[in-house]
Q: What sequence folds into this?
């Protein structure tokens, strides 16, 4: 399983940003292996983190090459004062089972070593 975390500081969002953001999110949801997403905001700094999860690296790479994503990369300085992207392989995920989360793997699907 893979995750892509997009962390950013905002400037000013406009209608073009919201349209492009929605289109990228829709494209992510249509890629092979898409598992889900979540977003976080730090109330002190206003910094935002969007995390997307895939069952394989192929879907992640498909989103990275999507035309709307490439357009956003070219125009980011209009809306963001800085960003960081973290691509990670999820080795383990566990909890008490009370939170529905994209990283939850059914016991039958989990590898024996997990």
A:
């Amino acid at each position: 399983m893979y995750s892509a975390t997009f962390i950013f500081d905002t400037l000013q969002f406009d209608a073009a940003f919201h349209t492009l953001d929605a289109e990228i999110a829709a494209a992510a949801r249509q890629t092979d292996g898409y598992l889900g997403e979540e977003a976080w905001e730090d109330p002190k700094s206003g910094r935002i983190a969007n995390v997307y999860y895939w069952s394989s690296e192929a879907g992640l790479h498909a989103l990275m090459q999507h035309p709307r994503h490439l357009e956003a990369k070219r125009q980011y300085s209009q809306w963001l004062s800085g960003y960081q992207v973290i691509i990670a392989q999820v080795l383990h995920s566990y909890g008490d089972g009370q939170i529905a989360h994209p990283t939850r793997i059914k016991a039958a699907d989990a590898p024996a070593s997990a």
Q: What stands out?
A: The two ends are 12 Å apart (CA to CA).
